[in-house]
Specification:
Layout lengths: L3 H19 L4 H25 L4 E7 L2 E7 L1 H24 L3 H19 L3 H20 L3 H29 L4 H16 L8 H19 L7 H7 L3 H34 L1 E2 L2 E2 H22 L4 H22 L2 H32 L10 H4 L1 H15 L5 H15 L3 H26 L15 H19 L2 H11 L10 E3 L4 E3 H20 L33 H6 L1 H4 L3 H22 L5 H17 L3
Antiparallel strand pairs: 1-2, 3-4, 5-6
Helix pairs in contact: 1-2, 1-4, 2-3, 2-4, 3-4, 3-10, 3-13, 3-18, 4-5, 4-10, 5-6, 5-10, 6-8, 6-9, 7-10, 8-10, 9-12, 10-12, 10-13, 11-12, 11-17, 12-13, 12-16, 12-17, 13-15, 13-16, 13-18, 13-19, 15-17, 15-18, 16-18
Length: 620
């Protein structure tokens, strides 16, 4: 009998290979959807068992190594994220895929993700990490070679960083098993606290942490390793971007949590605390705060809706890292909560963008407007996503952000708190523009025949929108399950109410108040509220007339004053820095090729002689 864990992991890949091999339109789509639905079905079946405290395990021996796969509560939560958002994205790909090539590599990357969340040893974790990266790289390569190269280079840097860290751990521990690695680091922490000899030195611990920080930071899109994400998210199948943002980025988040799970005690014992957070955790949290600010500001400045939500996704990942870094049970639960809500509303946003691009062929604000009338269903889905991302109750985005705010504030971390609140403010800024520039106002004449979402995309959007509402109105459903993951009652209350002990949030009460308010407003409106029609030319800015030389509209140059205010900081580009470093490396390689690897046997003899002299001087 085929093991259930193997079905969860490999069903997408098998379906992708079959869809690619057959390449029959209609058949490949059906096989692809089945390949994404089967893992989710098995996860739903196993969910009560795993969350009830029973681990499901399966071992595979290959090439002398034993790979352990375990479905534990933490892995289950992240695998469910991958299953739900992955299926919604695949439904979108049914409408937007251009060839069987995309089915193969989209589903391959989903197999990699499931393998990461179910692996219980470092070797299997790394192998599936590379499968995921390869599949997603090929998806970007299909659309834009330059964007794929940037993604490839940074992914290789992250992969080698992870490989070196794993190598150091294996050399010291003699095992890849999470259980053995955790035991080794925990014993080391205990020995260090009593002054005993530790297996890992202080410098080795710092090196391993730094390498993992790079590896997981690249995939999560953490500042300043985020530069690949805007181009990769933009230059690929937009339905697949829902998986890129909603699922693949969560592997980086999972990796940061894994640092706590495997070596948190050792890091805490070695480096202590900064204020009320672990010192190593504060580094993660501070990088998360910078990611919130940088991603949010750059999102506001974009003229392309795809890049706006790419930078927005980067910013939202920063919230999750802040929660992880603070390091309390409440903050980590809040981080996982926001990982769930981010996957739901950002996956929904990218399916909305996929629909807009698919139906209009447009990507910039300047070419849009008035689409709410032509795409009412997609607009309704966008309305849900906007409210959720903006953190407006009673959507899930508010619930997760509220818990995260409270977790940070309760630990008296003002800098991190300020970063988080700033991110929420800037989120309103770019969402207002998206709302009015795309859905309202005058509609260009070439969009008069625009149709609404095709059925597969509509179903994918509906799944994610429904969960945004359900988990928002009943956030206790999520909190109750996350308490099982954390192992303590960090959040209490009912399915409608979250009780932190020092603050309460009742989503059902908020919903009732909103409904009553909307009814009252509707009555006032229909009983005779006066409406004034405003002409398009009735535009002004701060009391000054608007001229064509400084044309500010909601669809064009709307945040030009902000761009001018940030001109100095915008000149500091890590993207340019990495390009310059790459250029220097290429120049150095050219010099070495010309003067070292020159094909001259006499030169090689001299090189050998010099090496032998150096070895002799060292006494080798």
């Amino acid at each position: 009998m085929i093991n259930e864990l193997m079905i969860i992991i490999f069903a997408p890949l098998i379906a992708g290979v079959i869809a690619w091999a057959l390449d029959i339109k209609g058949v490949r789509e059906a096989i692809g959807v089945i390949g994404a639905a089967v893992p989710l079905a098995y996860l739903v079946k196993l969910y009560p068992t795993v969350m009830g405290g029973e681990l499901i395990q399966y071992n595979v021996t290959f090439a002398g190594f034993t790979f352990n796969f375990t479905l534990a509560p933490m892995g289950m939560i992240f695998a469910m994220i991958a299953g739900v958002v992955g299926l919604a994205a695949v439904l979108g790909i049914v409408s937007t895929a251009r060839s069987s090539y995309e089915w193969l590599f989209a589903l391959m990357s989903l197999t990699g993700v499931f393998g990461i969340f179910l692996s219980y040893d470092l070797l299997g974790f790394f192998i599936f990490w590379e499968i995921m990266t390869f599949g997603s790289f090929m998806m970007v390569l299909k659309y834009n070679r330059k964007a794929s190269l940037k993604y490839f280079v940074l992914s290789v840097i992250g992969a080698y960083a992870m490989l070196v860290a794993i190598g150091i751990i294996y050399a010291k521990v003699g095992s890849f098993s999470f259980v053995e690695v955790y035991r080794a680091f925990s014993q080391d922490a205990a020995l260090g606290m009593v002054g005993g000899a530790t297996v890992f030195s202080r410098s080795e611990i710092a090196l391993i942490f730094g390498l993992f920080l790079v590896a997981f930071g690249v995939k999560a899109g953490t500042f300043p390793l985020h530069v690949w994400a805007p181009d990769a998210y933009t230059e690929t199948n937009q339905s697949y971007t829902a998986m890129f943002s909603g699922v693949l980025s969560k592997t980086g988040v999972y990796g940061f949590i894994l640092i706590y799970m495997l070596m948190g005690y050792r890091l805490m014992a070695e480096f202590g605390a900064f204020r009320s957070a672990p010192a190593f955790g504060y580094i993660i949290a501070f990088l998360g705060g910078l990611t919130i600010i940088v991603g949010g500001l750059l999102a506001a400045l974009q003229e392309d809706i795809r890049k706006l939500f790419a930078y927005s996704s980067i910013s939202q990942i920063g919230y999750i890292l802040v929660g992880i870094g603070v390091g309390t049970a409440l903050s980590i639960e809040a981080a996982i909560f926001h990982a769930i809500s981010h996957a739901l509303f950002k996956g929904l946003f990218f399916l909305i963008v996929a629909t807009i691009v698919y139906r209009t062929g447009k990507t910039t604000f300047a070419d849009m407007g008035g689409l709410a009338e032509k795409m009412p269903f997609t607009f309704a889905m966008a309305f849900v996503a906007i409210l959720s991302l903006a953190g407006i109750p009673p959507l899930v985005g508010f619930a997760s952000k509220w818990v995260l705010f409270e977790a940070v504030i309760s630990q008296n971390l003002p800098i991190l708190g300020g970063m988080v609140f700033f991110g929420s403010a800037i989120g309103f800024v770019y969402l207002i523009r998206f709302t009015y520039a795309v859905w309202f106002g005058q509609r260009p004449t070439d969009l008069d025949d625009t149709k609404d979402a095709p059925l597969p995309l509509a179903i994918g959007m509906a799944i994610l929108a429904l969960l945004n509402v359900v988990f928002g109105v009943a956030p206790g459903l999520v909190a109750r399950e996350l308490n099982k993951v954390i192992g303590e009652e960090a959040i209490t209350g009912t399915i409608w109410e979250l009780n932190l002990g020092f603050g309460r949030y009742n989503a059902l009460a908020i919903l009732i108040y909103l409904i009553v308010g909307i009814v009252i407003a509707g009555i006032i409106y229909f009983l005779g509220a006066k409406v004034r029609k405003v002409p398009v030319t009735d535009t002004y800015q701060s009391g000054n007339p608007v001229t064509m030389e400084y044309n500010l509209t909601i669809r064009r140059n709307f945040f030009l004053p902000l761009k001018e205010a940030l001109a100095f900081w915008l000149r500091i580009s890590f993207d340019k820095l990495y390009r310059d470093i790459g250029s220097w490396v290429e120049d150095l390689a050219e010099v070495l090729r010309n003067y070292v690897y020159n094909g001259n046997a006499q030169s090689y003899a001299w090189y050998l002689a010099i090496v032998l002299v150096i070895l002799a001087i060292w006494g080798v």
